Amino acid sequence: MCYLRRNPDDPQDTDFRGWKFWLDKLDQFNGNFVQAEMVKAFLVSSEYRQRFGP
User: Fold this and answer.
1) Which of 30, 38, 41, 53 is deepest in the core (most CB within 10 A)?
2) Are 28 and 38 in contact (CB under 8 A)?
């Protein structure tokens, strides 16, 4: 699955701090993505809104 049509293995994407942040947050909430607000964060992100917003 490539969120926002990006390939996570592309050479320019060598900084995985964002991925690690969300993985840690998901672990913190025992896998409950609703409590971790993962979907909400994705939907209100500026990148998502610029690509798919009105």
Assistant:
1) 38
2) no
Q: What is the Cα–Cα distance from 14 to 42, expressed in whole angstroms?
A: 20
- Residues with Cβ < 8 Å from 26, sequence gap 6 or more? 33, 36, 38
**Burial grade of 38 (CB within 10 A; 0-12, 13-18, 19 or more):** middle
Cα atoms found within 13 Å of the Cα of residue 17, Cβ hemisphere only? 1
In this prediction the pTM is 0.55
pLDDT tens-digit series, residues 2-47: 455 666 666 766 778 888 888 999 999 999 988 988 888 878 888 8
pLDDT value for 19? 83
Residue boundaries of the structural domains of the chain: 16-52
- Single-letter amino acid, residue 1: M
